[in-house]
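no rush on this but wanted to send it before i forget. theres a chain ive been looking at and ive put its sequence and its fold in token form underneath. i want to understand how the tokens follow from the sequence so walk me through it. thanks a lot i owe you, the record is right below:
>
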Amino acid sequence: MNPASFQLSNPAPETLAVSGALTFATAADALSAARSELDRGKQVTLDLAGVAQADSAGLATVLALLAHARTTGRALSVAHVPAGMHALARVSGVDSFL
């Protein structure tokens, strides 16, 4: 996998897994693709265990997906938040959303 790429998969019927990079380079495409997957499926968990690289754009992507799910009346939880993303969320004051 290219270091500046991401991948989505459905390892379980109610899980959308993200792997690779959630960065400025991938955020727009990741957001669009993940929204489409969430609209098609019944996922209730966003699994970030495979995310190898993340920055503030990746955090914004995750927050936007949570907001998108909420506007469609769905509860979406986030699992396996990478330590760096969690630290960024904490200093940004948005960790309670994760």
User: Anything to note?
Assistant: The radius of gyration is 12 Å.
